[in-house]
C-alpha cells in the first residue's frame, strides 16, 4: 500500500466535503458492515470512510431527510420527557368540595 497516495486521497476527499460535518451512507463490507445506515460524522471521518470504500457521501436530499428525522426524534423525546415530568394528583369529590369552599370563603 502506498501511504503517500492514501493520504493524498484522504486530503483530497476531505477538501471536497463542505462544512464541518457530513452525512454518510454506509456500504456493505466483508467485515459485517450494513448497507444504507446513515450517520453524521466529521469531515475527516467522512473522508476516511469514503477513501476506504466503507461509505459514500449522502446526497442533499438524503442529508435533509436524515436531519429532519433527527429533529423529529428529538421533539418526540422532549415531549416524552415533559410527559414524564407531569404530576397528577387524584382527589375525591369531598376533597374537591372542601378546596372550592376554602377558595370562596373570605380570608381574614
Describe this structure in words.
With 108 residues, this protein is an alpha+beta fold. Helices cover 56% and strands 13% of the residues. The chain is built from four helices and three strands. A three-stranded antiparallel beta sheet has the order 2-1-3, with helices on both faces. Helix 1 (3-16) packs across helix 2. The protein starts with a helix and ends with a helix.
Provide a brief overview of the structure:
This protein is of the alpha+beta class and 108 residues long.
- Sheet with the most strands, sense and barrel status: 3 strands, antiparallel
How many strand elements?
3
- What is Rg? 28 Å
What is the average of the pLDDT values? 92
How much β-strand is present in the residues? 5-15%
SSE topology string: HEEHEHH
Shape: rod-shaped
Distance between the termini: 91 Å
Ranges where pLDDT stays below 50 over 5 or more residues in a row are: none
Helix proportion range: 55-70%
The number of distinct helices, counting runs of at least 4 residues, comes to 4
Biggest sheet strand order reads: 2-1-3
Label the structural class: alpha+beta
Architecture blueprint of SSEs:
Blueprint: H1 3-16, E1 21-26, E2 38-42, H2 43-51, E3 55-57, H3 60-85, H4 93-104
Antiparallel strand pairs: 1-2, 1-3
Helix pairs in contact: 1-2
Amino acid at each position: 500500500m502506498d501511504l503517500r497516495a492514501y493520504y493524498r486521497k484522504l486530503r483530497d476527499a476531505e477538501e471536497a466535503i463542505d462544512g464541518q460535518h457530513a452525512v454518510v451512507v454506509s456500504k456493505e463490507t466483508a467485515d459485517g458492515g450494513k448497507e444504507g445506515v446513515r450517520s453524521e460524522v466529521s469531515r475527516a471521518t467522512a473522508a476516511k470512510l469514503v477513501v476506504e470504500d466503507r461509505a459514500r457521501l449522502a446526497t442533499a436530499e438524503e442529508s435533509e431527510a436524515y436531519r429532519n428525522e433527527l429533529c423529529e426524534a428529538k421533539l418526540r423525546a422532549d415531549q416524552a420527557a415533559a410527559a414524564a415530568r407531569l404530576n397528577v394528583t387524584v382527589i375525591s369529590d369531598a376533597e374537591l368540595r372542601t378546596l372550592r369552599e376554602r377558595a370562596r370563603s373570605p380570608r381574614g
